[in-house]
Amino acid sequence: MKKIDVYAIGNALVDTEYEVSDALLEQAGVAKRHMTLIDAPRRAELLHHLQGLHSRRTGGGSAGNTAVAVAQFGAKAFYSCRVADDELGAFYAQDLASHGVATNLSHMAAPAGQTGSCVVLVTPDAERSMSTFLGATADLDHTALHPQDIARSKVYYMEGYLAASPTGLDAALRGRAMAVQAGAKLALTLSDMSMIQFCRPGLEAMLGEAMNGETPAPLDYLFCNEEEAQVWCGVQDFDAVCAHMAPLARIVCVTRSAKGSVILENGQRTEVPAVAIKALDSNGAGDMFAGAFLYAVTQGHSPAQAATLGNHAAAMVVAQYGNRLSQASVDAIKAKFAAAL
Prior knowledge:
The structure is a single chain. The chain is an alpha/beta fold and about 350 residues long. The relative contact order is 0.15. Helix 9 packs across helix 10. It has a single domain, classed as 3-Layer(aba) Sandwich (UDP-N-acetylmuramoyl-L-alanine:D-glutamate ligase). The chain has helices at about 20-25, 40-50, 60-75, 85-100, 145-150, 165-180, 195-200, 200-205, 225-235, 240-245, 285-300, 305-320, 325-340, and strands at about 5-10, 15-20, 35, 55-60, 75-80, 100-105, 115-120, 130-135, 155-160, 185-190, 220-225, 250-255, 260-265, 270. A 9-stranded mixed β-sheet has the order 6-5-1-9-10-11-12-13-14, sandwiched between helices. About 40% of the residues lie in helices and about 20% in strands.
């Protein structure tokens, strides 16, 4: 019997979010709408530009956000990640525990060093631009995996950002093989345009592209936004994008901001309308969509119903500052969803 609904693996990052102008973004040399990997000196330089500005600190990391969302909606989530033995690492581990997410962090000693962190800059158009210092998570490897918990999981979820780390990618693929052997469904998020542009081979391996003459099991769920899908396919026309993306997984979810989301399943295309809101901050919206979607499908709901819940949850994230929702907000969304069934 599967006792864990979603087992996720990804980067452990503590987010520090700032509201900034486009002028400051340009002055600081940050690529808008992208995730850029930075080193410690660049992080210090960036924080110098942000001196005196108000900031918000939260647990982050794409798959971490998704695991928290799964747990907030009431399903069982496990997260494999890596932090350092420092204040940020303790903060991150406590954040997961407070949301009811099981993790490998309680079973292994944290190494010396610095926990990964992400400086998130949000401009008035609600776009988020991220500068990520990986720190300890750069060395995430297969020792973070819990084979016995993967075997007890319904869905194994991989964060595309791991394609940038040789050891992280190896861990994700080892976990993928374990999940296939245990009969778990496979899920992947493409994460960001930069991953597609610079780390495509790793993403292709997680997708299940043929390697060394062997073709791994195909994906069950693939998550991306419209712009990521366009970059992946190399075309702008959305009909062409859908035709190209559909074969990549049994169910492909393409989020389109104010246009809602599109579900591609067995040659069928289902458009799910968005929730009208005033956008303030897009940070975490895609992660929340994936978490709400995976919660719903693991509880027996259809992909279209799951996307409806995902759209509502993501809209509420975009309508506020910060990458996470309060439990009260999640409970309200869940109750509205249940009433509409």
